[in-house]
């Protein structure tokens, strides 16, 4: 909710600054530069932790951290065209990446690659008293 409020405040302030500059007032230029700086800091503050969480999650599954970059580049390459087929391929790549992010910890190391064999799972003793 706080992001929505911040977004609307930044949008209103940006609109006011651009309007004042277009009407010939020079006072809005400094505020517009400050506003762009705040937006840049906000974007960096959101993107860096998001990338760190993705890399950590991918490494927890047993893959290398470079997998995030590979999936991001593939998605970027396929979305750069205006073709519906390319957009579909990009969506499939994003869904595969989401599935990788949702895999349990150590899944790739325990199961091999995409093995659905659950017979080799390690049984963890329960802390409950089964009396």
Automatic annotation (TrEMBL):
Pfam family, one: DUF805
Record's GO cellular component terms: membrane
Residue stretches in coiled coil: none
Keywords assigned by UniProt, alphabetized: Membrane, Transmembrane, Transmembrane helix
Transmembrane segments: 30-55, 62-78, 84-103
Keyword Transmembrane helix listed: yes
Protein name: DUF805 domain-containing protein
Organism: Limosilactobacillus reuteri
